[in-house]
Amino acid sequence: DQPIANFQAIQWMLADGFTELEAARLLTYRAAFIKDQGKKAPKESAMAKLFSSELAVKASSMAVQIFGGYGFIKDYPVEKFYRDSKLATIGEGTSEIQRWIIAQKVLSEY
């Protein structure tokens, strides 16, 4: 018997997840910085929202996979994290709307 964290596959999932989490954080900070400068940041805000919300779904799905059958049992918070994370891709503009905003801004800039 050994802790699940000793398995290389789990370690790689954690490494990837935390790397993506830092990327989401930096996108959010960049959008906030531009907004703090008194400028509009629709593209940057949409990029941060899209990446962060989809990352939340990916991370919670990974947690469900790691937890196995326990990931679906209400005794563990993982199942709620998964349900809640999916709402983040819908509320305040769906992922498709965020992609449309980003594309419109990119096309108008170039």
Automatic annotation (TrEMBL):
Cofactor(s) needed: FAD
Record InterPro entries: Acyl-CoA_DH_CS (IPR006089), AcylCo_DH-like_C (IPR036250), AcylCo_DH/oxidase_C (IPR009075)
Gene Ontology molecular function: any one: acyl-CoA dehydrogenase activity
Domain Acyl-CoA dehydrogenase/oxidase C-terminal: 2-106
Keywords: FAD, Flavoprotein
Keyword match Flavoprotein: yes
Keyword Flavoprotein: yes
Family: Belongs to the acyl-CoA dehydrogenase family.
Protein name: Acyl-CoA dehydrogenase/oxidase C-terminal domain-containing protein
